[in-house]
């Protein structure tokens, strides 16, 4: 039981950190964590459809960019509300854990609420990606993957160069 609680707590903290980073404005590469997870597929640059060089490289039409931006804005509004729900659920769970007098039933109920809030955030993000994916042509999807991989490789090279100084 304790293992389940501590695992849930760890996952909550980890997810909050990742989600907070994703919802935060894009920073410089030096601000990003030096550790990368190579098992995850690379992500495209933040708001890539607003950058002229990527629009040209992908041959993205003005209409496609507008559709993607609308999808992004609607999803971000939902994500912010769901992130608030997630933060509340995480706070409630943490308070129960700190209290030390909460019974197992209350802790499990709070953990379930927390996991449901986490699921809603993850589900909205995935839905947003699917909707954006549907706006792109197969060639544009491949191009976006190539851009993501190229940028990730460049980021890793820059990080390695900065560490060796």
Q: Secondary structure elements and their pairing?
A:
Elements: H1 2-23, H2 52-58, H3 62-99, H4 104-135, H5 138-163
Task: Provide a descriptive summary of the structure in words.
There is one protein chain. The termini are far apart. The model is unreliable at 1-37 (pLDDT under 50). The chain is mainly alpha-helical. It has helices at residues 2-23, 52-58, 62-99, 104-135, 138-163. The chain is built from five helices and no strands. It is flat and about 60 Å long. The protein has a domain at 50-157: Four Helix Bundle (Hemerythrin (Met), subunit A), CATH 1.20.120. The protein is 76% helix and 0% strand.
Please sum up the structure shown:
The protein has 165 residues and is mostly helical. The protein has helices at 2-23, 52-58, 62-99, 104-135, 138-163. The protein has a domain at 50-157: Four Helix Bundle (Hemerythrin (Met), subunit A) (Up-down Bundle), CATH 1.20.120.
SS-based structural class?
A: mainly alpha
Largest sheet: none
CATH topology assignment of the domain at 50-157:
Four Helix Bundle (Hemerythrin (Met), subunit A)
Distance between the first and last residues' Cα: 47 Å
The CATH level-2 architecture of the domain at 50-157 is identified as Up-down Bundle
* Average pLDDT taken over every residue: 79
Form type: flat
For the secondary structure, the number of strands is: 0
- Estimated helix fraction: over 70%
Figure out the total of helices. 5
Low-confidence stretches: 1-37
Radius of gyration: 19 Å
Report the top-level CATH class of the domain at 50-157: Mainly Alpha
How large a portion of the residues is in β-strands, by DSSP E? under 5%
Question: What order do the helices and strands follow?
Answer: HHHHH
């Amino acid at each position: 039981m304790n293992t389940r609680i501590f695992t849930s707590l760890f996952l909550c903290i980890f997810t909050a950190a990742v989600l907070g980073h994703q919802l935060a404005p894009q920073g410089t590469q030096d601000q990003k964590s030096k550790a990368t997870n190579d098992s995850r597929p690379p992500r495209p640059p933040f708001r890539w459809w607003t950058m002229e060089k990527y629009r040209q490289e992908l041959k993205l039409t003005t209409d496609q960019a507008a559709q993607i931006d609308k999808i992004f804005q609607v999803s971000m509004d939902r994500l912010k509300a769901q992130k608030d729900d997630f933060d509340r659920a995480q706070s409630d769970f943490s308070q129960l854990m700190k209290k030390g007098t909460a019974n197992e039933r209350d802790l499990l109920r709070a953990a379930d609420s927390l996991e449901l809030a986490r699921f809603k955030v993850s589900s909205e993000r995935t839905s947003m990606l699917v909707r954006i994916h549907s706006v792109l042509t197969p060639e544009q999807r491949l191009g976006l993957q190539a851009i993501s991989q190229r940028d990730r490789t460049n980021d890793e090279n820059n990080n390695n160069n900065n560490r060796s100084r």
